[in-house]
Amino acid sequence: MRRIPLCLLLFALLFSAPHPASAIEVKVSAQALERTLRAQLFNGPQGRYYIRGDAASPCYVYAELPHVTFVQDRIVVHVHAKSKLGTSVRGACLGVSLTTDTDVSLIPEAEEESIGFRDARIEKLSESRELNFILAPFLSHKVPAQMKVNAAVLMRQLLSRSTETTGYALSLDSLKLHSLLVEGESLVMDADANLKVN
User: Fold this and answer.
1) Residue 176 and residue 174: Cα distance in Å, rounded?
2) Which residues lie below 8 Å from residue 51, measured CB to CB, with a gap of 6+?
3) Would you call 116 helix, strand, or coil by DSSP?
4) Phi and psi at residue 140, to the nearest 5°
């Protein structure tokens, strides 16, 4: 038990001395990115994101059940899409119902304090040209934009309860991301950071 305060004291001295920011490596799981995507985008009724219409519309297109994995150097987002395409007549949709599973892949990119994404590529679409016309802009533009995560904000949120859990007030003064790479089962962030311990 004596080692914990000693380690924290050494940690505090290392990061609170007046010198340039220190390099750190942070690993982010696919599940953490998936939770972020669900919270930021798939936060409608029943965890759906309505691309066209809403829960009360007779005709609609929505995506649900996002699942994030890592494949080689890319992040793959798998979604299940359902639609009723046609014309609304007296509260009913006259047209066709379609269901598909769709994948989009992205390359992670460091953007100051944030985890960003570029080179969105649709890996798998439906057999329907009409549904693809609606899904393609959502997958290639909306998903990458909504997945953007401010790593500094998340780290500050995690550290905000440090006094309760450790007895030490840990705070993040600055964070600068240099690189983001998919390595196996993790998204690895190489960054410079300044931390304080009180």
Assistant:
1) 7
2) 61, 62, 63, 81, 134, 135, 138
3) strand
4) -85, -20
Q: Are 170 and 1 in contact (CB under 8 A)?
A: no
For 10, the enclosing helix (H) or strand (E) is: helix 3-16
How far is Cα 46 from Cα 65, in angstroms, rounded to an integer? 10
Structure confidence by residue, pLDDT tens digits, 24-34: 888 889 998 89
- Of 99, 82, 76, which Cα lies nearest the Cα of 44? 82
Q: Which long-range contacts (CB under 8 A, 24 or more apart) does 81-88 make?
A: 81/51, 81/126, 81/131, 81/135, 83/52, 83/131, 83/134, 84/58, 84/59, 84/60, 85/59, 85/61, 85/128, 85/130, 85/131, 86/59, 87/59, 88/57, 88/58, 88/59
Q: Cβ(111)–Cβ(134) under 8 Å?
A: no
Residues of the chain with pLDDT under 70: 1-22
Token readout for 53 is 């219409």
The number of helices, as runs of H, and strands, as runs of E, in the chain is 6, 9
- Token pair belonging to 168: 């030490």
Bridge partners of 95, per DSSP, are 86
According to the model, what pLDDT value does residue 82 have?
92
**26 CB neighbour count, 10 Å cutoff:** 18
- pLDDT value of position 158: 84
59 vs 96: CA distance, rounded Å: 9
